[in-house]
Amino acid sequence: MKMSQKRYGILLPVLCFFLSLSISLHATSYQPKEEVVYKNWDKLGESSNHIDVFGRVIKCATTNQVHLMIFNESSVDQVSKFLIEVTNPTTQQKFSKEVSFSTIKATIYKAECNSDASTNVLKIDLPEGYDPTQVKIAIEFKS
């Protein structure tokens, strides 16, 4: 009886491990790709008061977006104000969005597909017809 308990004592954890591994691999193989990066982070500009702004073009689930990243490299807290202009080179269509964002000194703020609501202002949805691989992004600082 003790010999069979030893076999089952080893066999059961091994079986559980392989079963959980199989379930995990099966679950990840059916999960849709959450993000597709069309253009990775590129510096859009730096304001006179040392605010750096970067942008990228990404698909989050089913929505193509421009994401912004702001770095306040200054030694003081400040509000960053700028205008983002997005151009579709194929059709020459343009749209713009004003952004006003409070920043803490020496802090980076970055939009992510799953980031919390505090960075939603740093996400800009691309309209239908804008090719995410071709859009051009320009910035004009207001402060």
Describe the overall structure.
With 143 residues, this protein is of the alpha+beta class. It is 20% helix and 47% strand. It has one helix at 2-29, and strands spanning 35-46, 51-60, 63-72, 78-88, 93-103, 107-110, 123-125, 136-141. β1 and β2 form a beta hairpin. The relative contact order is 0.19.
Q: Strand tally, please?
A: 8
Number of H- or I-type helical stretches:
1
N/C terminus separation: 81 Å
Overall shape: it is globular
Q: What is the alpha-carbon Rg in Å?
A: 24 Å
Question: If you average the pLDDT, what whole number results?
Answer: 85
Strand content: over 45%
Main β-sheet: number of strands, strand sense, barrel status?
5 strands, antiparallel
* N-to-C series of helices and strands: HEEEEEEEE
Structural class by secondary-structure content? alpha+beta
Helix content: 10-25%
Low-confidence stretches: 24-32
Structure described in brief:
By secondary structure, the chain is α+β, with helices and mostly antiparallel strands. Helices cover 20% and strands 47% of the residues.
Kindly list the characteristics that best describe this protein.
143 residues, alpha+beta, 3-stranded antiparallel beta sheet, 1 helix, globular
SSE layout and pairings?
Elements: H1 2-29, E1 35-46, E2 51-60, E3 63-72, E4 78-88, E5 93-103, E6 107-110, E7 123-125, E8 136-141
Antiparallel strand pairs: 1-2, 2-3, 3-6, 3-7, 4-5, 4-8
